[in-house]
């Protein structure tokens, strides 16, 4: 324990200071009650947990204050905090700590592929981040790419390059199936993290890391099956296996195949009653399963943030919780601007 305190003590202290600035449940409720997005933006400028990024956007800098603009500016807060925490991370933990960079690269690649599919941006190119990160992705080339080959070239130095090359259709100018591409990139992401965990960690830290990754994958696979059964009920069982992550933690392969072969959503829920996650989905509607996933990840990471002694996962847990805080803020923005229902239960949990 003494060695862990010496190695991660400064990192843990920095995280405690940042976590103390988080938005609380009553903050979320107050923000959700504001009249418009301009009031919301001004309120967040005054909050210590989000003011740094918004200080990079001077008042009046946007001709239009929309969800995309606000989300981009708020996401810069995550980038700033990632950079500040990186200074305290021991050298041997740097590869794992870069999980956010790899996730950012994956999101950017999928956004570019979606744009190529539709032939245009939804409205206009998203605003460039004011907080650059050291990505392996050629962001400029990706933003201007007009073909899959150009996308491949922009991703040539990333962990996703081999997968993207494998997905390249044989017909010139064609694009890969988006759902399969999304599953393949997520699989490459988790495979990369698994290799790091098995290669560099042992003991309690490895156990916590493997549980964090494993439960995420199990829950995401269950959610994928429930979505397909609900919205694409004619999907063949073989197709399910192509879009699920080929990893198992508490769900074994036979059980996963049984979920895929179930005739419908109700049958999936019946099977889940005999699974290690039976308490998770008891009485949960299909539309709420994604929020359950977020709640489960939130509870797990809150426990790890308080765990003694600290480890590199203390930083991972904090950044995951900050990402959840952002997701609640996005819901608040949509609630204020578009009248989307405010997710008070999740906000209360994140804001505890």
Automatic annotation (TrEMBL):
Keyword Ion transport: yes
GO molecular function term, any single one: proton-transporting ATPase activity, rotational mechanism
Any matching Pfam family: vATP-synt_AC39
UniProt KW keywords: Ion transport, Transport
Signal peptide: none
Family (UniProt): Belongs to the V-ATPase V0D/AC39 subunit family.
Protein name in the entry: V-type ATP synthase subunit C
């Amino acid at each position: 324990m003494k060695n862990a305190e010496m190695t991660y003590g400064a990192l843990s202290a920095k995280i405690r200071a940042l976590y103390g600035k988080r938005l609380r449940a009553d903050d979320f409720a107050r923000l959700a009650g504001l009249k418009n997005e301009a009031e919301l933006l001004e309120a967040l400028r005054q909050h210590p947990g989000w003011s740094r990024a918004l200080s990079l956007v001077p008042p009046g800098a946007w001709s239009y204050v929309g969800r995309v603009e606000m989300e981009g500016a708020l996401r810069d807060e995550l980038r700033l905090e990632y950079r500040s925490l990186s200074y305290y991370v021991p050298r041997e933990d740097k590869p794992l700590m870069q999980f956010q960079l790899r996730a950012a690269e994956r999101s950017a690649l999928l956004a570019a592929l979606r744009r190529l599919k539709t032939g245009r941006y939804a409205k206009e190119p998203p605003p460039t981040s004011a907080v650059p990160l050291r990505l392996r992705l050629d962001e400029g080339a990706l933003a201007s790419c007009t073909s899959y080959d150009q996308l491949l070239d922009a991703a040539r130095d990333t962990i996703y390059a081999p997968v993207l090359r494998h997905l390249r259709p044989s017909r010139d100018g064609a694009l890969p199936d988006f759902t399969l591409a999304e599953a393949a990139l997520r699989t490459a992401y988790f495979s990369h993290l698994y290799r790091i965990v098995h290669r560099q960690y042992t003991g309690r830290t490895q156990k916590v890391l493997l549980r964090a990754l494993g439960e995420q994958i199990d829950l995401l696979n269950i959610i994928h099956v429930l979505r397909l059964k609900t919205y694409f009920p004619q999907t063949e069982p073989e197709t399910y296996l192509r879009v699920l992550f080929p990893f198992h933690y508490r769900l074994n392969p036979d059980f996963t195949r049984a979920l895929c072969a179930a005739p419908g959503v109700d049958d999936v829920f019946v099977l889940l009653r005999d699974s290690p996650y039976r308490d998770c989905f008891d009485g949960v509607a299909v539309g709420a399963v994604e929020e359950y996933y977020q709640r489960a990840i939130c509870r797990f990471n809150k426990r790890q943030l308080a765990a003694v002694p600290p480890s590199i996962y203390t930083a991972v847990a904090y950044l995951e919780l900050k990402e959840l805080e952002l997701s609640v803020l996005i819901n608040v923005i949509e609630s204020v601007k578009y009248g989307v229902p405010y997710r008070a239960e999740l906000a209360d949990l994140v804001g505890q």
